[in-house]
Write a structure and sequence with these properties.
This protein is an all-alpha fold. It has nine helices and no strands.
């Protein structure tokens, strides 16, 4: 007689984490229910316990990404209680130290074919823009000057590691303060 091994149930978080691992390593086209089930060592019917379909999984991945890669910064009490300039610096540092941009490109790809997912993704980008806008506005920037700085900060910290993968983390860490000085200094004022 064969002894059956009792398996623990795979949680929704387990499915999401595995999907994000596959997304990061292989891209959105490889985030397939069959592959996830195989890698989790469970039948694919377990997937449907948590998600209606693959589209719902992708949307859940974006929600998870928003919480774990954006809200973790924008709702961080230490950051929120800092001065505007320090808030920007702590945000830049947290992004770098925790590699919070590693899913930017695959996340963007995953949303391109789904209008609801695309809207969700753009909402996350708006949260980021608003976060930097608030700090820079408190520092006295306004109008086009404010918007240019907001977009530069957001774009740079969203795409630096994607664009410059070979740039050592030590160099990026050294440049944080230089970038802070560049983007937070008023051209006609001395700090």
């Amino acid at each position: 007689m064969t002894k059956k091994v009792k398996r623990e149930r795979v949680s929704k978080a387990d499915w999401l984490e595995k999907a994000l691992d596959v997304l990061e390593s292989s891209g959105i086209d490889e985030v397939k229910i069959e592959r996830l089930a195989r890698e989790l060592n469970i039948s694919k019917s377990g997937f449907y316990w948590h998600f209606k379909d693959r589209k719902e999984l992708v949307r859940a991945m974006i929600t998870y990404w928003e919480q774990e890669f954006t809200s973790v910064v924008t709702s961080n009490h230490e950051i929120l209680n800092a001065s505007p300039r320090e808030r920007i610096y702590l945000t830049m540092k947290m992004i770098l130290e925790n590699n919070l941009t590693r899913l930017e490109l695959p996340m963007r790809s995953s949303a391109e074919k789904d209008p609801v997912a695309w809207e969700m993704l753009n909402r996350v980008y708006q949260i980021r823009l608003d976060f930097f806008r608030s700090a820079l506005s408190e520092m006295g920037f306004e109008g086009e000057d404010l918007e240019m700085r907001v977009h530069l900060l957001t774009c740079y910290h969203t795409w630096e590691s994607t664009m410059f993968r070979d740039l050592p983390k030590t160099s990026r860490a050294k440049w944080l303060k230089l970038r802070l000085d560049l983007l937070c200094s008023h051209p006609n004022k001395t700090n």
